[in-house]
Specification:
alpha/beta; 14 helices; nine-stranded mixed beta sheet; Rossmann fold
């Protein structure tokens, strides 16, 4: 037993059932205040944790305390008496601490799922890409557009500017942790993205240049997250955040432990997105077999994993494909693409970065990674083609692949496309759009 644990369980300490183990809270409705405790760590008969205090639904202060030490609890009691006018503060804090100690020692109970009732619906920071309360990984080659896409989504989250296919349920403060270290470039890009919506403005996104590892900065980041009410952290990049052996599973696991703590430190669930690089192409570069660089824990620990692929256009814009590779919290999303346009002034200084949704089937480099029926559709959208041209364009080199293509052509004949002659096929635009919206990719 932890030293100092009471035999009589008080009623004030209540577990918040949020799906995150180890969170405790005590509501003080007469003061419109809430005390929350998380990040428990036991050692030497002590129980250390972080205490968050909210007042009028806003962060008031946070402090690392020992729930067993009398001095620490007296200091918290004095703060609560001074800042919110809490009556009998020593007894309230002591009851809360003793209740947590007892509950902590019991461990997690075994319950029937039916007793828990329905879980809350999945919350989003940016729908459908960023889920609240979860860590995600966005990986791809350098220059593919990973940072620009996430900074753009962060701009939408802070300004509540919606785009086609993207919804912002509520404005959210976004913080960029830049372990790449180029502050001027990050600042220019964030301002250019913001000016695509507000031409005379400067980006409201929070920025911090990373010096030490994410683990070493964890306590400071918790303070900053609470002070600025950060709802979404963008970490650029994953390996830079480690400042350690990236191929070892242990530092990656510790990194995600810190990230998950940042996801749940405020009153509402936050999110953390890591930007990562990918392994060098393997023997079969045509297939989506490449994985994030470093430990396999990057893939295992993240709840959502996205592969980002860039394709340079002749007009110097970039088509960026986003492929949802893994999810532990929802069904996988359809592949999507966005066009990034860099607009400069007469002196070639970057003024705006404009991001718009595009049709992924119209960019061959991105369409290669789609299901075959969508690749056929994209090829025919670019113009009617003979069977031999389709074989070559869709890289059907063996007889099995060619037979699969022919089977799909005849299966959706009259629905997606039509046969002009015995050897030429073309798109049925109206019917194709209707069917596309119904099919799950």
């Amino acid at each position: 037993m932890v030293d100092g644990a009471s035999e009589t369980p008080p009623q004030q300490a209540k577990r918040i059932l949020t799906g995150q183990a180890g969170i405790y809270a005590m509501a003080l409705p007469e003061y419109d205040a809430l005390l929350r405790v998380d990040h428990m760590r036991e050692g030497g008969g002590n129980l250390f944790c972080w205490l968050w205090v909210e007042h009028h639904q806003r962060p008031l202060f946070m402090e690392k305390i020992n729930l067993v030490a009398g001095t620490a609890k007296k200091n918290i009691a004095a703060k609560l008496e001074r800042m919110i006018g809490l009556q009998n503060p020593s007894a309230e804090v002591e009851d809360f601490a003793q209740g947590i100690i007892r509950d902590y020692e019991k461990g997690e109970p075994l319950v029937q799922v039916s007793e828990l009732g329905e879980p809350p619906p999945v919350e989003y920071i940016v729908r459908p890409w960023i889920v609240a309360g979860a860590c995600s990984l966005w990986y791809g080659h350098g220059g593919a557009g990973k940072t620009t896409i996430l900074d753009w989504l962060g701009t939408l989250a802070m300004t509540r500017e919606g785009e086609q296919g993207i919804n912002i349920d509520g404005p959210c403060n976004v913080g960029v942790l830049d372990y790449e270290g180029n502050q001027d470039m990050a600042q220019r890009n964030l301002n250019a993205l913001y000016r695509s919506y507000f031409p005379e403005g400067l980006s409201p996104v929070y920025y911090r240049r990373g010096g030490r590892s994410l683990m070493a900065d964890s306590e400071e980041l918790r303070h900053l997250g609470m002070e600025k009410d950060i709802g979404w952290w963008i970490v650029d990049s994953a390996l830079g955040a480690l400042q350690d052996d990236s191929n070892s599973g242990d530092p990656v696991t510790r990194c995600f432990t810190v990230a998950r703590s940042l996801c749940r430190q405020n009153g509402s669930p936050a999110a953390v997105s890591f930007i990562g690089h990918e392994q060098k192409p393997g023997k079969d570069d045509d297939k989506m077999t490449k994985t994030p660089l470093g430990s396999g824990q990057w893939w295992n620990q993240a709840r959502d994993v996205f592969h980002v692929v860039g394709s340079q256009e002749p007009d110097k814009s970039v088509q960026v494909g986003v492929y949802h590779q893994k999810s532990n919290i929802r069904r996988q999303l359809r592949p999507q693409s966005y066009r990034i346009q860099y607009q400069s002034d007469t002196n070639d200084a970057l003024q705006q970065i404009v991001v718009t949704r595009s049709d992924i089937t119209m960019t061959p480099d991105l369409a290669d990674k789609l299901p075959m029926w969508r690749r056929i559709e994209g090829a025919l959208r670019r113009g009617a083609k003979s069977l031999e041209v389709l074989y070559e364009e869709l890289k059907c080199v063996d007889e099995k692949a060619k037979a699969n293509l022919r089977a799909l052509l005849h299966k959706y004949k009259g629905r997606f496309w039509m046969q002009h002659t015995d050897d030429t096929w073309g798109i049925l635009e109206k019917e194709s759009n209707v069917i596309r919206n119904r099919l799950q990719v």
